[in-house]
Amino acid sequence: MKFQFSIFGGMDIYEKWTTAPEDGFRWWQQTHATGASRRPFSARSMVQHSAMFSRFSRHLVLHGATVASFGASHIESFLSELAGRSAPGTSTALRYIKLLDRLCRYLVDEGVRADNPASQYAVRTTWPTGEPVPVFLDEVEDRRLQQHVAAVAPSDAREIRNRAVIALLHGTGITSAEIRSVRRGDVAVEGTRPHVVVRQRGARKERSIPLPAFAVGAIGAWLCRDDALGDDLLFPLNASTGSFCEETLWRAVRESLEAIGFSGPDMSPRVLRNTYARRLLLAGRSHPDVSALLGLSSQRTVVRIRATIPPSDAAT
Fold first, then answer.
1. Residues 231 and 85 in one domain
2. Which of 4, 21, 271, 295 has the maximal Cβ count within 10 Å?
3. pLDDT tens for residues 265-291?
4. Across-strand partners of 195?
């Protein structure tokens, strides 16, 4: 097995990749990784790839493997888990396969790995031929969920929190990553213009999103639960409500959708984000306006959602 020193401060490359894989991945992205065009990735792509690798790395840790030892079974279990959290027809799994294939080829060249278990997946997968249809709540289901979150708040702390989570996601269209970084001081439920400020995250600029009336009560009930400071996370880990990890968030969304009788191929926060965008389009908002509120620089997502609205239903 080949070992190298230099950029790893005296630590050989095998040890670096097995003890601090995310550091090694970032270094590889900045110095060696290229796409199909053989050009370096953009800064934004590097951020996205690092987030993807972190997710895969956590999966390996849970299964007692490292980047030097994982095999096809680890990729299989990861893709199976991924499928349960991705909308059908999306390219999410393929993007992971392409990333792991590039990474493994590099690790084999450097002597960190003896084989590339991702290659068998890469050769038998292709990019989707069309855009997947967004999953959303129709107007009746949308109103039903609004009524659900606006109902009298329960006394259980977890239920109060989950009701506020759904109110914020459904009322503003922010992502699951964004809601986990919102701080109490970013939310205003009093006054004439209730809103939430979503701070800059990577290439996505800071934006202020109005809070609709149906969401204010549930969010206000959560804000009133204690005297936490304004710079504290809005949904932190605490003794009364437990962890607020991605799994907790997705479970809260699924339970709320099941509570209103909705069942679809996607039961994730993405459904609420799509519904929010569609609600704005039905109200007559323009593509640039909706894209800006979603924090998107491209209008591609909004155009896809617009296509779900019959011409007779679109506001003029």
1. no
2. 271
3. 888 888 999 999 999 999 999 999 999
4. 188, 210
